Fold these 2 entries.
Entry 1:
Amino acid sequence: MNWNRKHLLDIQSLQPEEIVTVLDTAKAFKAVGERSIKKVPVLRGKTVINLFVEPSTRTRISFELAAQRLSADVINFSAEASSLKKGETLKDTARNLEALNADIIIIRHSATGAPHFLARFLESSVVNAGDGAHEHPTQALLDTFTIREHKGKVEGLNVTILGDILYSRVARSNIWALRKLGANVTLCGPATLVPKVFEQMGCRVVHDFKEAIRDADVINLLRIQHERQRKTMFPSIGEYTSLYGINRSRMNWIKPDALIMHPGPINRGVEIDSAMADGSQSVILDQVTNGLALRMAVLFLVSGGKGPQEIAA
Amino acid sequence: MPDTKIILTGEAIHRGLMRIAYEIAERNSDSHKVAVIGVQTGGIHMTHRLAKQLESIWQHPIPVGLVDVGMHRDDLGKRPNPRLLPTKIPFDITGRTVILVDDVLFSGRTTRAALDALNDFGRAQAIQLAVLIDRGHRELPIKASYIGKNVPTSLQERISVRWKEDEGEDEVRLEKS
């Protein structure tokens, strides 16, 4: 299917075929990373700006390296050391960046809908690198890519997402992507963090840990996000770990070929113990590698999918 | 309906590829250095057929690869649907003579992109270009080393290459739109 989008704002509005196009494109870029020359000239002369109003290290580095491997020029803009601190509005900041002829603006913001807001008035392409608790589309795409790579398909798989669903944009984007591609999604965690209302997104909500992971082909563990919780949603970290943590003694509760995923950073000993995080079923570092390829694909597609119809042999 | 003319039949394609294979064999005395790399997607079938014929002439296997030029094109944003396909070159091209294969040579921009892409995989001793159809209208100083058929065309015309593996028959058509 043709990719005709100038922006990547969320997974919710994507067609299943568009998701597949991104995954297929990422496959081609993954091969580039395995060569001795890891750079291709496809975005030569383009300017990419990482506008990270909310702090991030891994996503920013991943986007930065992705842009560099496509030969784009990339600059990083972080809120702490910027005019936003002096009271400039997001709109003015973005307009100023665009006045520098930025071709792609990658935005991470604590407010839901910030990327959509920018896309309404900017000529540049906008890529959502996480907006509040709303969506984190590239994370969901790289998770889906990793699942497809290991399992050969996504349709019909049982995927269990564990932990802090309520505050997680990763969970929301993953649910959209997985449901669109035909996976069965189970959510599990403390009832305060995994409310029944998520059943409206086509998921199964289970509060019994053993039941949630028993038939899972994929277990995606989310980090407990202390910074996003306004009040304590469960009694203690220790209790969370004893009820919902993945550890070696629970290894026989899961399928021997189940994939264990985590978007990082891992709280070792909380969501997962070291034996499992570093074990043979873990694909956590594959996610990092695939994230780079996937982000190269997204930057490539938003740059190219807007041209007029013109065919040359 | 567009006005269509058959310019190469299956038989003519077969003979053309056979002749190209012999020309390659004639020009490259060290057959063990030769590798054949096709441009995605137009060059795929021609590449496999040429490699097969070269193997039967030389009586030894020839390394075969495919290169996608999507990451090296100069017209991103001007073409719809920038679809990328895998590049598969499972051997080192450094020191080899690479026969680059495509079905139609037109502006030369695809070939230029393919030459750039190959550069990322090593320094070939030489690169030679084999095409089934040269339809003219070059925009870059690029010339094929081996040509199945020269076809003078106008810019309004379209060359459609059909391969048995995909369409059930070998045929090259000239379509006027």
Note: Residues 305-313 of chain A have pLDDT under 50 and may be disordered.
Entry 2:
Amino acid sequence: MNPVNYLYLAALLFTIGATGVLIRRNAIVVFMCVELMLNACNLAFVAFSRMHGNLDGQIIAFFTMVVAAAEVVVGLAIIVSLFRSRHSASVDDASLMKL
Amino acid sequence: MSATAAVHSLWTTAAAADPISRIDAPKIEYGQLAPTLIVVGAAVLGVLVEAFVPRRTRYYAQMFVAVVALAAAFAAVVALAADGYGTTKAGIVAMGAIAVDGPALFLQGTILLTAMVGLFTFAERRLDPEAHGNRVDSFAAQAASVPGSDSEKKAVKAGFTTTEVFPLLLFAVSGMLVFPAANDLLTLFVALEVLSLPLYLLCALARRKRLMSQEAAVKYFLLGAFASAFTLFGIALLYGYSGSMSYATIAQVVDGTVQDVSPALADTMGNDALLLVGAALLVMGLLFKVGAVPFHMWTPDVYQGAPTPVTGFMAAATKVAAFGALLRILYVVLPGLRWDWRPVMWAVAIVTMLAGAIVAITQTDIKRLLAYSSIAHAGFILAGVIATTPSGISSVLFYLAAYSFVTIGAFAVVTLVRDAGGEATHLSKWAGLGRRSPLVAAVFAVFLLAFAGIPLTSGFAGKFAVFKAAAEGGAAPLVVVGVISSAIAAFFYIRVIVLMFFSEPRPEGPTVAVPSPLTMTAIGVGVAVTVVLGVAPQYFLELAGDAGVFVR
């Protein structure tokens, strides 16, 4: 199968993720959409890696996974602490500092 | 498509030929990587200290480790620069991952000094009143406990402190040291995350106003992760365009001077959409980090909500690191594309300068005011970036060094002005501060004058250098806009000075806490650098000028 099709899929997944970040209101869901964007990047890396016939892209995919895992640790810690003090994980409720 | 056939042959020939009998060990130049390695090692050591040293002595152990590490790393940077690694011996190390050259060493030195000053403000323990006989700093007793809950009260009573901030600071610094020196896109991305993740956590750790602090952390985290996803997709597209992660190879492909063109590369090289979209997404991620309009939305909220020592450190050091990375991307990777990125950066710089200066006028909170001022300053620095001349690089380096010390000093002063609820950040409470404590008000006035770019302060020398470089680089209209927005910005800086010195102090106004020598040192260094760089900038301008050549 033509690897370019995987790029179209990656772009589609990335767009879905970005749209989700912009329209969803729950911090956890927003965060999951960011993870979807990172995975779309991974798919693009692997597809490009195959097109170019070098392994750089596949190596980067591993690094991205590790970074995404680290981000989950930090992100969930922050979101859970916000949820425990407010009993809400809505990003709209967090507006103490609006002008 | 011909590319797929080539890939299959690669896979099959690899299987048919001899299996890989040995893998050569990578060559790592430990000496030239010493500054980063020292800081990473100390950060790991800090985690161990957190695990094994008794709570009573942890603070002192962490302080010791952090101070020694930052000082040693700075000494290593100076030694490397003295050995000529910034000029004649500049080169690419660690198998092409890191560049050791003038701009990298200059920015690493700046970041390390800034981090040292920031560390002093982190360690300050005399500003808050003692809680149950224990001295407390600006960080939560126990970050995991819910604000106002019993477990928080217990933690405060037991005298807990979050000494994890010191290793977190060191991890962030290690990312910042790599960020401007990264020489391939993977290193750039990993450094971006290593510098960001600790900062997200640090933002959530304030002792007072914890809800606001957590809110700031969530906003910073979600927007930061969103921006880094865009950066990563940009990296993916640039990799797809050039078939390589290395800055030098990508630059050759962009220029069209690449030597051996495989069929797959010939195919993707012709696709300008990959290059343009990839470069745009990558630069967007960096502009988010420097806080340029239209990617600035996080700046005011995060600067206001984060603990003030963290805000000062973040505002100063992150900006230095991110501008370093942006310079390298634009000057080393994408010079062949400059006719495309220059107009875009023109627009970004103009909007950033004007929006930062105009919106700052309406602010009533001193930390938000400084946040918008930092946005305006990002615009001024971008004007130097656009110059695309050697003097553009050196002027940006000088501006960053000058700006970071002013910022960290200004936020250190903000930690001193306090009332019952902690820091009194509302501007109305600063009225008449100059009559109550003339010294603190005078010091803050010096910082504000430096922000405004009044002569005899470092702000003037920096702005002059940047605007001169921009004008010589053919961006004269940008200089006009820059001067206009400087004038707008000067209005609200002067307004704060007038408020401090020429209005009646309120009877229930805030008090100025007497800090320990730590914060005094931080503020003293800030004032000293501001005045020295303002009165006698020549030596430092020459230093930045000597350092202003990228290795490729």
Note: Chain A touches chain B through 51 residues (CB under 8 Å).
